Amino acid sequence: MFAASFFEWLSTSPWANAMNGPEWAFPVVQSLHFIGFAFSIGTIAIVDLRLLGWAMRRQSAAELAADLDPWTRVGFALMLITGPLMFSADAVSYHNNPSFQFKMVCLLLALLFHFTIHRKVARSGASPLAAKLAGGLSLVLWTGVVAGGRMIAFV
Amino acid sequence: MSIASVLEWIESTDLSTAIREGALPYPIIGGIHLLGIALFGGMVLVTDLRLLGWAMRRRPVSDIVQQLQAWKWAGFVVVAVSGLLLAWAEPQKLYRSPAFWVKMALLALVGVHALVFRARVYGNTARLDVASTVEARLAASLSLLLWAGLIVSGRLIAFDA
């Protein structure tokens, strides 16, 4: 099967060997992954809390979203570099791990939502109900990503 | 009473056993700890970046610091309580872990940081709205370093045998 041989190849790639080499490689890359999601999910959550009307009410959601966007992207970049690096270290078992699969579904939905509806609602000053729904759903999706990620090690 | 016997007693409590041996409590509490880091950590980042003048420059410092303060406290409580529960589950392992002690030392430094900078930076934002100060930028830089150090040392605990 193509996918299986791809993941096997991935786990023997030079970057996988680097990840599986020194003892400190994995925890350090994982720490960078955490720092990345604090940047991205942390800044998205601030916008979400504003959409829900719970935080930062002196600013509009549009202003917050625009001002925090560069830092959200810094976080995305860090996550999307460190995540695949960790994945390649043990590609076959991650690929088969139900928590990992759950996380990837949540991540795809969360990213898709972030760059479409969430962005539109945050920037256009949509009706309070739409804003609350978008903020709430975004928080739920990103919570799924983090929770799924945490569970990978326990499944 | 020796430290060893205190650690043994903690591990023998029902709460400790339940977290350590149940299938769900440990990952769930770990998940809450991690979510707290994302939310609360993100807010610390944004505050520090604003103090450094790197983010949200359209808004006065006082707006950001004041509006995030209550949320940061709430996040801190979530991370601290979940962290305490995780530690309660396996105190003997943590006692032997160098990374755990590094993390505890960094936490103590977070307390020192608050004592040193609270009045002059975080409680004095009206002054910072006029012009940034060296103190404010120093406080933000040190806060970012401590924050990153806490994440790295926390993660390394899992890799200490």
Could you walk me through the main structural features you see in this protein, from its secondary elements to its overall organization?
The complex is a heterodimer of chains A (155) and B (161). Chain A has helices spanning 2-10, 14-20, 25-51, 61-89, 91-96, 98-124, 128-151. Chain A is mostly helical and 155 residues long. In chain A, helix 6 (98-124) runs antiparallel to helix 7 (128-151). Chain A is elongated and about 50 Å long. The mean pLDDT of chain A is 92. In chain B, helix 3 runs antiparallel to helix 8 (134-157). Chain A binds chain B through residues 23-24, 26-28, 30-31, 34-35, 37-39, 41-43, 45-46, 49, 55-59, 63, 67-68, 70-71, 142-143, 146-147, 149-151, 153-154, and chain B through 23, 26-27, 30-31, 34-35, 37-39, 41-43, 45-46, 49, 55-56, 58-59, 63, 67-68, 71, 148, 151-152, 155-156, 158-159.
Strand and helix map with partners:
The complex is a heterodimer of chains A (155) and B (161).
Chain A: H1 2-10, H2 14-20, H3 25-51, H4 61-89, H5 91-96, H6 98-124, H7 128-151
Chain B: H1 3-12, H2 14-21, H3 25-51, H4 61-89, H5 91-96, H6 98-122, H7 125-130, H8 134-157
Structure described in brief:
The complex is a heterodimer of chains A (155) and B (161). By secondary structure, chain A is an all-alpha fold.
Can you tag this structure with a few keywords?
heterodimer, A: 155 residues, mainly alpha, 7 helices, 83% helix, elongated, B: 161 residues, 8 helices, 0% strand
The assigned structural class of chain B equals mainly alpha
Major sheet size, sense and barrel closure of chain A: none
Tell me the fraction of residues in β-strands of chain B, as a range. under 5%
**Weakly predicted, low-confidence segments of chain A:** none
- Outline of chain B: elongated
How many DSSP helices of chain A? Answer: 7
